[in-house]
Structures are given as structure tokens and as C-alpha cells.
Fold these 2 entries.
Entry 1:
Amino acid sequence: MTLLSVRDLNIRFTTGDGDVHAVNNVSFDLSAGQKVALVGESGSGKSQIALSIMGLLAKNAIVSGQVMFNGNNLLAASNDELNQIRAQKIAMIFQDPMSALNPYMKVGRQLSEIVELHEGLSRRDARIRAIEVMEAVQIPDAKRRLDAYPHEFSGGMRQRIVIAMALICRPQIILADEPTTALDVTVQAQIMHLLDDIQRDMDTAVLLITHDLGVVAGFCEDVMVLYGGRMMEKSKVGALFKSPSHPYTRGLLRAVPNIHDQTGQLHAIPGSPPNQMNAPTACPFAPRCNDVIDTCWQTLPELTGEDTQRACIQPVEALS
Amino acid sequence: MLNYSLRRLAFAIPTIFALVIFAFYLMRLAPGGPFTSEKPLPPAVMANVLERYGMDEPLYVQLFTYIKNILCCFDFGPSFSQKDRSVNQIIASGFPVTLTYGFWSAVFVLICGIPLGVIAALRHNSFWDYLMTGLAIFSQIFPNFVLAPIMVLLFTLSWGLLPGGGWNGGQWQYIVMPAIGLGTSYMAGVARLTRGSMLEVLNSPFIRTARAKGLPERTIIWRHALKPALLPTLTYMGPVFVYMITGSVFIDVFFSTGGIGQDFIDGAYSRDYSVLLGLAIIYCVLTLSINLVLDLLYAWIDPKVRDAL
Amino acid sequence: MTSAKTHLNSKEFAEQAAEEMITSRSFWADARVRFFKNRMAVVSVFMLLCLVLFAIFGHNFAKWSYEEIDWSILGKIKTEGAPSIANGHYFGLDELGRDMFARVVQGSRTSLLVGFVAGITSVIIGSIIGAMAGYYGGRFDQIVMGMYTIWLAVPYIIFFVVWQAFFGRSLAQLIMVIILVNWTAGLLIVRGQVMMMKNREFVDAARMLGLNDFAIIFRHIAPNVLWVVVIYSSMVVPEVIMMESLVSFLGVGIQEPNTSWGALISEGASTMTFGTLWQLAYPAAFFVIAQVSLYYIGDGLRDALDPKDRR
Ligand SMILES: Nc1ncnc2c1ncn2[C@@H]1O[C@H](COP(=O)(O)OP(=O)(O)OP(=O)(O)O)[C@@H](O)[C@H]1O
Ligand code: SF4
Ligand SMILES: [Mg+2]
């Protein structure tokens, strides 16, 4: 059952130097319990997609398209309507646990205020819920730490609290924006395990935003590859890792450190991310693509295909 | 926390002592004195006068006596120029006046400045925002000594609404203009600072988190944004109070309120060292204690600072 | 202390500013372009220039000197003392029968002179002390910061009142007290910048080349903090003019018959009950014009030089 359906999402930002086309014609679906990864380099527009679903884009954003949830277009919803969905139905885990928590408020209060508001619990009951959810994200000694301030926690613990915040209302969808990038590797693994367990328990749909393909392989079923605000490839995780069909995805996979790689080399994709000041008319990846041919400079490839969808004018067989 | 308070006190007390000692020596060593007039007094009379004020003793003895009297009996000695009054009496009559309208002025600064700044930030580029920008520039251009005459010109001379000076036991009509005249530019400063920090806080990630929780805007502002937005304002209040004291000297003189500012300036003209010294000490103690209170308040409000202490 | 200053003194600003490596000449060229694109700032520079020219050459147009008393009108100030081209008193007369035009010229001279000389000297002194405190750190830094804290806690009027009680008042003394009061201007910000800067590679390189501390501070660090000092000066100058005016208003500033905007405003304010409003209006207008111009110049400089809002 499709829970969330994003259609033709476009996000532009007006700036002093002109418009930034951060997200272009992005469409995807999310079903109950599904785990989808959204990968792409820094600046490719991953966070903005999640924020647009939450209705939290910056003031200078111009957004078009549709985000359908329960028959409502969230992009057209009022702030009050969105407030009924935020946290209760769709929750977001933010990128940076260091700054996502209010430094002047006890973490217990930051958790309990959510259920006080949405479920009308008393302060006392809300506190109990806060303790429960803190225990669920494996924060030791939760009861005592309820009255601590964020700065008294380590980075990993803070990220757990941010996750707890997203979970406390048992939402149908969690948008997890790089939940582990700010943490060191061992903590990363713990947090991903935790997310995995909770996801299975509650049958939540998760949109996992990351640029770490290793995390994707362990956690997700489907994966979407974003480049310059455009969807480049959409496929099952297994298929993607086995036979990536898009030149950009291939580049990304080559850039992942691989213990089986005999040469031990890291293959960063040469060149830099595209300039998003103008709406592209050619394949945005063309300047960096190994397989570029003349027509690539003239046409904007559409996302096509059945199981594996890709945006490249050349057939898979023609790629090097 | 207690530790920190004690440490801050341990800094403030020697500071005050140093100031007293420095000012004392400066005053006694300066050329001329309260009793140097055009017609020099006969030496015998002079010696008499000096003895009466205890000025015939060595300086360090005088200093010691002076400090001892302040500490044990809160006695700042006799006035040199106003023969029948002691410094204590001068302080007792003037200080409450200055403190009264100073208090109302501070209330005005905070009660108007903070909401104005918050509203300007929330309604970015609205009427309130422009009003505030206008006010900020206005206050920079019209400091109290330009504003006060203009106010008197309007409210007293033209419209006859408010008395142009005096105190009259502190009736409210007599407090309005001194309080507003003293506070306006700092009110604008507080508003501008509050607006800036509020805008910054509203753009911070933790406010976005609060929005993602589905909290109503009102809750976000009151519960999440206000406290961090006001912390810079609190820091700013320290220097503001110090500047307001200088401003109060002007207000006392201009509005003839009978506050201590007038005595301070008169003391300068008549070289009344004991009054000058006494009032300077009062001013310093006042500012240092206000700063101390603000620092403690800050530490108490900001959990990070509180823990670092 | 204005809120703009609070920003300049903040740690974030120090960090941002230190990122800018202003060794290239293009920085100043860019800043100049940016500054001259700011219409208010350009108009303000023009206004200020006019004021300066007025202060310097105004006496050539005055029919009277600023001390002279026009006995023919004295006693009839209220009726005949108003501004008039005919009798040569363009701005009218003060209550002692002196020509207001000449007095305003003289007042502008004093106020601008005190503002610029005392303001800029204060910032330079503060910056040097701040640079040394930031560079050497340790004990010296602690002492300087202690003094700084105390200084900020003492209302400046005390200095003026006490000084005037003992040493009287002359222009030079007035400037001296103002510097004494304001020596902390620019201290904190330069200290912060130098602390950020002193561990940079180019400073290490200079040290390796065997340059002494003095040469390092002046040849290598100073150019990088110069722009901060410029921004700061633009805010301190109007503040000093304001300070001078206030203390002169209170009678502990400039000495009669010399005068300044503050002293003139004071006289004007004390006589406004008699309806001789020109005595208040002219000096107040000049003061306000100067403050407006300096405000926008400072604003323009900040926009042109401060990396914060720049992309
Ligand atoms: N308010 C804004 N104004 C202008 N441009 C913006 C704004 N917000 C985001 N952008 C631009 O939108 C693009 C996409 O940003 P986004 O935060 O989605 O990247 P991301 O894929 O999440 O990268 P990262 O991995 O670094 O988090 C970036 O180029 C960014 O500069
Ligand atoms: S369309 Fe052309 S340039 Fe773009 S990815 Fe495919 S081959 Fe490369
Ligand atoms: Mg992101």
C-alpha cells in the first residue's frame, strides 16, 4: 500500500545571484514498512526533498509538484494541517544531532512535549512515555537522564534522543536524514541496528538519506540515486550493487572503499557537482561522465524502465 | 554556582578597593583644593579648617580613616563645600530619586525594547520592523541630550502636558520624561539586538526540529526561541546600565530632579572632594553589583555556562 | 556599546574574520567598489565633507568672531536676535549677544576635531594593546583583560568630572580624557583577531625567517586586522562626538568661550523657554547631520568590509 507519493517535485531557491534549482522533477513512492535509500553527493538535494515533505523548507524556497499523503497534497497544506501530520504521521530525524536539540531545554521535556501536544497526555504520563522511548533507543539510566541538558550527552546519545523524538508518536513514516554521518563508525553501526530493529517492530516506512552506500546495502531494499537534484537511477539494492546501470551510480560504487579491490585504490569521481543556477537542458552528469557522447549534451534524459529505472540516453550495454 | 558567585565577588571587592584608593590619592594630590579661593585664608584659619576635616594627618592615615568609616558606619564624611551637610545626607536625599526614575527607565527599556525586537523579527520586513529600524537610527542621532530638550519643547512648552523638570516627591508626571529621556536610545539598542538574535535563533536547526514536532508557532516562540534569543540581550544590559548611569547624571542636571547627578557635577565645580569621592564610589559599587547580578543571572539561565562553572 | 559592536566583539565574528586573508590588494579595491555602490554612504561622505569644509573655512564668511559681543543687539536678543542676513548674524545671536554662525563654526571645529583625533587615537591605542595582549597572551593578557573589565564597569562621566575638578579643561585635556576613557575601544576585537592569526602558517613562516615579534605584529598581522580597525573607528568617532557633546552639555567638557555642539545645544536648551529657538536649532541640526552621516558611513564600511553578509 502506497503511503506517500511524491510527484514531479521541484524546489528552487531564490537568491541574490539568481535561482538555485535544488530539486528537479523528482517522483517516488513509499509504502508501509518499506525502506528506501536516497543517496547522492553533498548538495544533491537530499535534505531538501525530506524538508519539503515536512513543509519545513527555507523561506526563499519555491516548490511545485505534489506530495500526496492520505489523499492530501502536503505541499498545498496549511501550517495547521501540517502540524497534525508532523511527528504523529511523518517524523524526521535531522542530519546533525549536535544542533538539532534545543540546548536550553531538558531532553525529557523536549521529548514529552510532543506527546503532551499530540496525544493530550498529562505531564506525568508524558514523562513516562519519554522514559519508555529513551529506553527503546537504549539510553542507559533513562529515568535520571530525563532531566539532563543536551550538552551533557555524547554525540551518539544525542542522536539516539533525536531518533527517540521521531519515534515517540509511532509515526507511519520516518525521514532519516543522514542519521549517522556525524558519528564515529562503531556508533554508526549501533544506531543503524537500532533503527532497523525499531523499524521492524513498528512496521514504519523509512526514507533513509545518506551518502554512505555501505549503510544502504545493510539496511534498505530500494535505492534512489540523486545527482544535481535529479533522479538518476531507482532500483532494488541488490540489483544496484550487482549491476549498476547508470554511469553516475557506477562512479559512486567505485568510490566506495572495497576490501576486495586488489588495487586498494579509491576512485573518486573526477570533476565537481553541477552548477544549479540554471535549469539543465543536457544530462547534468555529462561533464563528468566517462561514456558521454554528443547527444548527451543536447537531451535531458528521462527516468525510464521497469524494475530498474534510469535516466541515461545510452542503453546499459553501450556503457564501458 | 556558589563557587562562581564567590569568585566574582572576590574580583569585585578588590576592584572597588583599588578604585577607592586610586581616587582618594588622585583627589588629595591634585593641585588646588576645596579651600583654595581667590583670597587665600590666613594660615592659622587654614590649619584650623584642615584639622577639622582631618586633613592635617598623613595621607595614608586619612585613607585608612576614610575606608574604616565607610566600612563600619557607612559614613562618607562631611561635605567640604556644603558646610551643613554630610555626604551621607546628600546621598540619602539624591540617590532614591535617581534610583526611582532609573528603575522606571530600565522597565521602559525592557518592556518596550524586547517585545519590539521580537515582533520586528517575527514580522520581518513589516511595519514593526521598519518602525524599529527607524527608531534605532533615530536614537543614534538623537541622544538623550538632544531628545530631552525636544521633549520639553513639545510636552511642556507647546502642549503643557508634563512638567519640564523638578521632582515633587516623585509623582508620576515628574518621572515620565526623565525615564523616557534616559531610556530611549538603550530601548532601541535592546530592540535591535533582540531582533537580530531572534532572527538568528528562528533560523537555527533546533527551531526546525521544534517545527518538525508539529508544535504551534506560539509554543515554538515562547518555549523554544525566547530564552536563547534573550541571552545576548542580557549580556548587553551590563554596558547599558553603566551607560545609563552617565545618562542619569545628565537627566538629573537637565530636569533638576534633585538626584545625585546634580551633586556630582556641583561637586566638580566646587572641588568638593568628599562628595565626588563618595558619589564615585556609590556609582562604581552600583555598576559592579549590577554586572555581578547579570552575570549570575546569565549563568543561571544558560545550562552550558552553569555547568562550566 | 552598540549592538553592532557586540557583534564585532563576538567569537563567531573573530572566527569568520580570521578566515579572510586580506593580503591581496583586491580586497580593498573590492571594498571600495562595494562602498561606493552604497548610495546612502556616498551621500553621507559628501555631507560630512561639507561639514568639514564648513568647520575649516566657515570663519571666512562670518562677520563676527565667536567671542565678540554685538552690543547693539544685546538686551534685545528675543526681539532682534533672530537669524537675519541683513545684520550679518545668519544664525542669530546667543543670549550673550554673540554671533551664532561663528559659534556654530567654532563648535563644529571642536566637535569634529575631538571626534576624529580622540576617536581614532583611542582605537589605535586600544588596537595596539589588544594586539600585544593577543600575541603574548599569559600574564600580560590577563592584566589587560582585568583592566578592560573594570573600565567597562566604570561610568565614563566619573573620569570627566574628576578630571575637570582637578585639572580644569582645555581642548588638549579634553582629548586626553576621552582617550583615557576610550582606550579600550577596539581592544577586544583586535585581540581576538590576533589570537586567531598568530598560529597561522604565514606567521610561523615569518618567525622562521627570524623576524622579531614587533616586526611580525606590524608587518604581517597588522595588515590583516586593519580593516577591522577601520570598521571599529567608524563606530567610535560618532560615539566620541556624542561623548564630548554630552560632557560639554554638563559643563565638564569644553571651556568657554570655546564651544562645541554639545555646549551650544546646552545653551540653546537652557534658553528655549524664552522662545529663542534658533539657539537650539542650529547646533542641534549640525549635530544631527554629522551623526546621520557618520552612521551611514559606518554602515557602508561595515557592509563593504565585513565578510559576514558577503558572498
Ligand atoms: N535556503 C537556501 N537558499 C539557497 N540555496 C539553498 C538553500 N537551502 C539549500 N540550498 C541549496 O540546495 C542544494 C541542495 O541542498 P541539500 O541540503 O538538499 O543537500 P544534501 O543533498 O542534503 O547535501 P548534504 O549531504 O551535504 O546534506 C544545495 O546546493 C544548497 O546550496
Ligand atoms: S546521458 Fe550521457 S552523459 Fe548522461 S549519464 Fe548517460 S551517458 Fe553519461
Ligand atoms: Mg543534507
Note: The radius of gyration of chain B is 24 Å.
Entry 2:
Amino acid sequence: MMIKLLAVIERDLKKFRRNPIVLAMSILMPIIYLVILGNSFQGKLTDLPVALVNQDTGPFAKRLVENLMAIQAGPRTFRLVDLTDQQKAVNGVRAGLYKAALIIPEDFSKRMTVAGRPDLGLFLDNTDSISADNIRSLILAAAASLGVDYVPIREVTNQPLLRDINLYPKVDYYQSLVPGVVIMAIFLGTLTTGAFNLVMDRFLGIDESYLLTPLTKADIVSGLIISGLGITLMNAGLVFAVSLLITGIPISRGLLNFVPLFIIVALTTLCLLSLMFAILGRIKHPRIVGVLSGFLNVILFFPSGSVYPIASFPGWLKGFAAINPEAYAVDALKSVLFKGAGMTGVMGDLMFLVLFTAVMMTLSILTFKRTL
Amino acid sequence: MQNDKAITVSQITKKFGAVTAVDGIDFEVPRGEFFGFLGPNGAGKTTLIRMLTTILKPTSGQAIVSGFDVAKDPGEVRKHIGVVPQASTSDLDLTGRENMDLYGRFYGIKAAERRERIKNLLDTVGLAQRADDLVATYSGGMRRRLEIARVLVHSPALLFLDEPTIGLDPQSRRVVWDFLRKLTEKASMTIFLTTHYMDEAESLCGRVAIIDTGKIIALGSPAELKANIPGNDIITLAVGKAAPQDVAGAVEKLPFVHKIKPEEGGEIRVYVDNGPKDLPALIDAARAVGGEITSASVHEQSLEDVFIHYTGKSIREEEAKKVSFFIGAGLPQRLGR
Ligand SMILES: Nc1ncnc2c1ncn2[C@@H]1O[C@H](COP(=O)(O)OP(=O)(O)OP(=O)(O)O)[C@@H](O)[C@H]1O
Ligand SMILES: [Mg+2]
């Protein structure tokens, strides 16, 4: 009994070891992903060109411009370009020369002091919504600090002070990607081990001779899952360690929480391995796996909450996230890594993963055929 | 009664959609027999073997293999048989020895026994030197020899060989033949073999079934099969001196002569029961009418003739296709369907 199972496992490990490129890629790829994702979403905006047309000589306009200059000098989010012609400024935005054009009308200061609403004209290149949002909020802040109730946030008369109280140690965006990247390493591992062996053997026609031996369904499925688990855990562990190093999360935090982290990673691996078995159980051509892998990666990874919070999803996507095992895995990893939650804190996530694994395993055993 | 039969098949049928690959076949193979299946491409040989070896479910009918029903007890059947499939099934990422060891373990054979047996088998098929190279570096014939050795790691009592000598050079083929013959003679194994090679069937098999379009159209020992077809052996005589007509007339009267056919250049073809035995009498009869035989050749009826007689086509015509099948062995089975 055991001898057969071990033979299946050993065959898989040997074949894997003889293909070091696969190993190197499945470790390198998630890490490169981390670096690219971390820098493409998170980079600070600087030196956005903003055209400024000041037609007011009054004191409030002067103060507003000073405020804007302070931003230009400090965080350097934008760079002001002084213009006199309003039309030229707006055309410049259309032509892409400027990200925005701010017009301070002649009567701005007058309206500030006397009755009436002071208006600022802000023309935004809203095709680049992230830059536009940034500029808008900075200019709003600059205007608001003039101390007077003036434009869109009229209802806020005496501004309440909003002070951030961080519940957990500071997590920057880069660090918050680590759970997602580990999950991606697990995904890649489970895709290229486990059920993929079945597909390859079928494609090469060598499954025939394995089916002819006394190997049982259980030998084949559990053997491939065990070897897949071993290989994937090793990959994910390496990716985890390297990600901690790159993003500056203290390794000690990883070590302190080793047991819950290990359980989460192992369970997620089993979960995805059984999902792959259910999906690939009858596939005969590796090209189908190729097509599926890109698709599965996107539909599991992006709605997992690892890149962008699930709360921002529309209802239907939230619904999908509710059955997406990667979402539970990311949540569990974030809880342990960033909130210091122990096993009890992630019990709900773990229960879901166990349940999902059980359903997929049943499905795989039902669909796996022990004939040609 | 069941016990002296290695294989009992009744009315076994396999349909792939509209194609009936195996069409209600019945036969029995007693233990210890070397049984051959001959048939052109697409006759249904591989499909039949796959059903007998449990990896394809019959559409209908029954097969008892090694005492177990292939449909009800596939696990038991698998324990008792060894199969060399038609297509190459060695794992290219493993060495020859590892491939064999793996199979030994699938059958639960202990390490020490495995090591010993694998070494002997690799020696027998001439792969001892290359045993620790990856199979990916083997030639086609080496892979085939490895597969033949592999199937014996667990010393099964019943062997299924689907075109085992495909792609082997004449020498290797002889080696494999001798080896297989010894298995049935010394180890009293039962062997079920399919082949396209007449000489292989004739030299190895105790009984041969000829299968075409899914049906058995003839079954018997090679000698019986040959005896059953009309015309039998052919003696070609070259006649000097006397007019060939006289000789032909005299020869035709002999009781064992079935038919006479004059050929170009004064030769006559004589269809007789048994060529080597009947030749002297033929020569005597020709002399009696003053004819002189300048040369004579005897063409004994072969399985090839039997095959052509029953199927209406020569098996050799199909030979070229085999090569491409071998290369394309890994293609999905439902390609183009
Ligand atoms: N998986 C399949 N799906 C559909 N048709 C099949 C399948 N396998 C075999 N066939 C068809 O069944 C028939 C018998 O095929 P089979 O492979 O048994 O022939 P064979 O006698 O082994 O031929 P060869 O000498 O070429 O190996 C053919 O017509 C073939 O096309
Ligand atoms: Mg065949």
C-alpha cells in the first residue's frame, strides 16, 4: 500500500528536480510581481504640471498662491506654471501640457470678505483620474486653509479635526502586497504540480501504462497531492522569506507566527491543489492548462483583496470574493502578519479553506477516471 | 473448468460513436499458450487489448482474465497481468532503471528483489550499459526493449504485448523472440500478442486469430490456417525439351494437384497440397512424358497468403502508416473527431 504511494510521490519529486528552470521561475516570478505591483500602484506622484492663472491681486489670492507654493516646495506633487491667459491654460490642459489649470478670478478676495461665494476654476485632465484626484484634493486643502467656508465642502463650517489613530503597526502598500504574492507563489506551485502531471502523462500517452498497474485512484490522487504540497510549500516558503526581506517586514514577525502562517499556507496549497484536480481532472492537453492558468490567476488573484480592498468591489464581485479561496487566504495571512491575530483570529478563514478543499476533493475523485 | 483458461472472452464489443472497433468477439486462451492476434491497421487489436486489460470499458460482452471479470474486478486483473501497450510509455525524465524500479514498486515488490530482477532483465534486453541514462536519450528500439523488460519486473503469469517488436532491428527482434519463447516454455507464462509481422506470428504463436474490422475471421494454429485455404503450396517448374503442354497435361492428372497455370517463358505454376513432399512425384510424372525439368522452386503457403485470403488485402501495404503512428503516439485519441 505505502510502497505504491511513495513511488508515485518519488517519481513526481524526481521529475521536478530534473527541471530546475520550473523551480527557479516559480520562485522568481511572484517576487518580480511583487516588485512591479508595489512600484506601479504605489509610486508617489510628483511634479505634475499645473497651470496657474491668477487674476486677483487681493490678499486671499496671495495667500492661496503661497499655500500652493508650499506644496510645490514640500511634497512636490505639482509644479506650478504661471500663465496670464485663461484660454491658453485650458487649451494647455486639453493638449496634455498640464494636468490641471487653476483659475483664480478677479473677484476672489472680494467675495471672500464680502458676502457671496468665492469661486475657483479648476480644469482637470480627468482621463488620468489618479493624478486629477490628487491635485483636486490638494487644491481643496490649500483653499480650505484660507479659513473660510467657500466651495464644495460648504457644510463643514467649523472643520472638525480628523486625526488618524493607527490600530496596528504601520503597513505600507508594498508590505500589504506580501500576502497576495505568497498566494500567487502557491497558485503557481499548485498549477504546475499535482493535476498537471495527469495532463502531461495523458498528453504524452504514458498514462496508459500507469493505469495498467495496480495503482488505485487513491494512490494516484493522494500521491500527486502530497508531492505537489511538498514542492509548493518549499516555493511559497522561499517567496515568503524573500518578500519579507524586500519589503522590510521584520523576519522575526514571520518566525514568531510560524505555526499559524504555516497552517494557512499549507491549507491554501491543499485547497488550490484540489481545485486544480477538479478542473484539470479530465484535461488531455497542456495547452488548455496554459490558457486556463492565465484566466484563473486573474479571476482568483485580483478579487482576493490582495491588491485592492474587497470593500471597494461592486456587489457581484463581492459575491465572487466570498467564494474565492484566495480571498480567505489573503485575509488570514494579513490578519496574522499585520494584526498579530493568532489561530483563533483566523479560524473562520481556515474553516472555509477546509470546506472548500473537501468539496473540491470529492469532486476530483468523482470526475477522475481510472480508464482511458 | 475456468481455471485452465487464462482468458475467456464472450461477445465482447466496443463502439466509439458510429465506429464499431470490436464487434462481438469470442475466444479462449488456455494457460501456457502463446496466442497471436493478426490484423490490419484499425482492425481493433489495440481496442481489444485495452478492454482485456481493464483500461477501456466494453460497450457490451464479458471477459474473464486470470480468473477475474474485467468489468467487475479490474483491480484483481491488474495485479495478475503485465502489459506492453502499443505506444511508447516510458517516462522520458527518468532513467531506464528508475522506470523499471517504479513499476516494481507499483506492484509492491521488495527493494532487494527488485534490484536483482531489474539488473537481470536489463542485461537480457541489452540495456545494462545505458540503464542509468535518461530514457530521453534512448533510441526508439532501446525504449521498446526497456518496455519489454519493464513488464516482467513483477513476473506476471499473463502477458499482453501490443506489437512488442515494433521498431526493433532484426537482431533485437530475434533476441526478443527467443526470450519470449523461453517465457512460455520454461516459466509457463501465457502470452497474448498482436503483430503485423507474419514471421513473428508463425515463429512464436501456438494459435493465431485473424481479426478484421472488429471480427475474428479465422482462428487456429498457423499450420491449420494454412491448410484451410484452397490452393496450398505453389511449385514453379521450368520445362526443357518436350513441349510444356505435354508436361502440363501429365502433371494435371496427379491427385494432389489442384490447378495449373502456364507462365511466360515456358514455366508452369502448379498448385499442390504440400510442396516439398509432392515435388519428386511431379518430376517423375514430367519425365514419364519425356519432359525435362530444368529448375523447380517451391513456395510454401505462408500466413501472409492466409491473411490475404481472408482479408483480401496484404498486410504489408499498411506498413508505412505504422511509422507515423509510432511517432504520433502521444497525440490525443480524439484528434479530429
Ligand atoms: N479512442 C478512440 N476513439 C474513437 N475511435 C477509436 C478510438 N480508439 C480506436 N478507435 C477506432 O477503433 C478502430 C480500431 O482501432 P485499434 O486501435 O483497436 O486498431 P488496431 O487493430 O490496434 O490498429 P493498428 O494495427 O493500427 O494498431 C479504428 O477504426 C480506430 O479509429
Ligand atoms: Mg493497435
Note: Residues B 45-46, 86, 162 surround magnesium ion (ligand 2) (CB under 6 Å).
